[in-house]
Specification:
The chain is an alpha/beta fold and 361 residues long. The protein has 14 helices and nine strands.
Amino acid sequence: MTQPFVSVVVPCLNEERYVAACLDSILATTYPADRLEVLIVDGMSEDRTRSIVAAYAKRHPAVRLIDNPSHITPAGLNAGIRAARGDVIVRMDAHVVYPPDYIARSVAAQQETGADNVGPVIVTRPADGHAVARAIAVALSHPFGVGNSRFRIGSRERCWVDTVPFGCFQRGVFDRVGMFDEELPRNQDDEFNFRLAQHGGRVLLEPGLVAYYYARGSIRQVARMWYQYGYFKPLVARKVGRVKTLRQLVPSCFVLALAGTAIGAAANLRLTGAALVALGGALNLAVVLLNRGMPVDAGAVAAAAASMPTDGLHVTLTGATALKPLADVIAVPIAHAVYSIGDVCIALGGFLVPFVLLIRR
């Protein structure tokens, strides 16, 4: 049987450090080369990204460089989808490397299950060998850092979920559901998958499908990214008419309860302080219950790590247990705190909108 023609769409901006490794991993695919094109949609990068991609395009006819003057991810995705020739669209990220069987597995899972969107489990790798970068990677792989998001903590079996990263779509999905929302520089995947579900579509997490994501390497970079996630989550909720999952509320409620506890203690308001401590404890319990029955699938992650492609960027994440305290003390609190600030900015009706200037950096 003839394999469907696949268009890989990769939006990017200033990814000179990662784009070559990403392209190498895509071009090493086991999928038939004559049934594949790779569209790098660049948001007018100011570093060497464009020249690197242009060099690949000269050597590999399947690679094309497309301009995204709007700079933002959803506009890049839409430009790539419109330019694509494929019957199947695989959305990828330049900050990620992919195993050789990634595309073939994605297409096979879609054909076997009839899923409208198929996505991988993410194995989070550190940006470099420094302790903070490695602690960030640990924090973004643990339930206390990311809640019960199955694509981050792993799964032992196929499951239907609310969202996945780096989806594999039948092209007809976009005719039926529409394109990515260009009002959402972040969290556009969440909104799209919610819209897909409203149209009767299904999103599949395929545990044998793995993507190796390089986390941001500094606390400042993580803070900026998670602030943006927190800022745009309520906008997604406003667009779709409801909060998608309980886990989206936990960081904000937890941080606000801790802040209220500190204020109550400082003011010596014993009754209020006790009530807030109880609330903080209840929210702690919510985190535990949210993750109950959903432990990190160590076996799946270990198996995935064993097949880590050689990409010139890989840093071995050894001593993860030793790094866990650093992740808990630094990376997790900062991620939750700035996520919550983003939520509060929207909750206050935009009075703190100047913070959104971070989005443009």
